Amino acid sequence: MVSLTRVIAGPTATKFLAALGADVLRIDPPALPELLGRHLDTDAGVRCVSWDLADSARAGDLADALDAADVLLTGYRPGSLTDLGLDAASIRDRFPHLVHVELSAWEPSGTRGGQRGFDSIVQAATGIAHHYGARDEHGRWRPGALPVQALDHTAGYGMAAAACALLATGTAGHARVSLERTARALLDARTLRAAQDAHLSPATLTAPTDHGMLEYVPSPVRVDGARPPAEAPRCEHDGVRGPAAPARTA
């Protein structure tokens, strides 16, 4: 599996699929290193490389990787990968055997289709921030938000589910996931609002890393009756991925 995804949503998908046994190769542009704490959390069990895909040699390496892969996950703004020949139509033509799952912030057919976006912005635009807003101690209304970048995590599991569903058919295919559609699905579900003072304390595990002890939430599934073990990311570059951050994620 090849992943051209960043930050939280796409890496949540690859972390989950790696826990299920997938061999995942994550490719990042050299100029956009991931934050260290986020890398340690979301790249568990993932092989990470830093390749400039505008370089013909690296583009060839990617083509070789895609020839050997079953799944490609992409998570960049619609149109941003076209010049690299990595838009959905080009992928379908060049690598017809692949299951391709695309992620974007916005629905491509909407008014914001080609724009950048991220979890908090989408929560505000879709009404989630209003739904969870409340008045502060001075009586001023403040917008709220779902905790722990919930749109990113939900969309990431949606990507993993879409990939698994397509793989189960035994044929190639294409699926698209967006934070905007995920937000609207959550709003349509009409889940009861939790109390304002509710505090969730999920069970966590710890694992040693080269950067200290990592506290993390284990995989939500069991394989052969056991939680998949936490594996450190496998980096095939200098290992520097942004400024150091506390190696604690929960």
Description:
With 250 residues, this protein is α/β, with parallel strands linked by helices. It has a single domain (2-191, 206-235), classed as 3-Layer(aba) Sandwich (Rossmann fold), CATH 3.40.50. The protein has 8 helices and 11 strands. It has helices spanning 9-19, 36-42, 56-68, 88-94, 119-126, 128-131, 150-169, 179-188; strands at 2-4, 25-28, 47-50, 71-74, 99-104, 134-135, 141-142, 173-178, 205-209, 212-216, 234-235. Helix 1 (9-19) links the parallel strand 1 (2-4) and strand 2 (25-28). Residues 238-250 have low confidence and may be disordered.
Listing every helix as H and every strand as E from the N terminus to the C terminus, the arrangement reads EHEHEHEHEHHEEHEHEEE
Rg on CA atoms, Å = 19 Å
Q: What is the assigned CATH homologous superfamily?
A: Crotonobetainyl-coa:carnitine coa-transferase, domain 1
Hey, roughly how much beta strand do the residues contain? 15-25%
Key terms:
250 residues; globular; 17% strand; alpha/beta; Rossmann fold; two-stranded antiparallel ribbon; 11 strands; 32% helix; seven-stranded parallel sheet; disordered C terminus
Layout of secondary structure:
Elements: E1 2-4, H1 9-19, E2 25-28, H2 36-42, E3 47-50, H3 56-68, E4 71-74, H4 88-94, E5 99-104, H5 119-126, H6 128-131, E6 134-135, E7 141-142, H7 150-169, E8 173-178, H8 179-188, E9 205-209, E10 212-216, E11 234-235
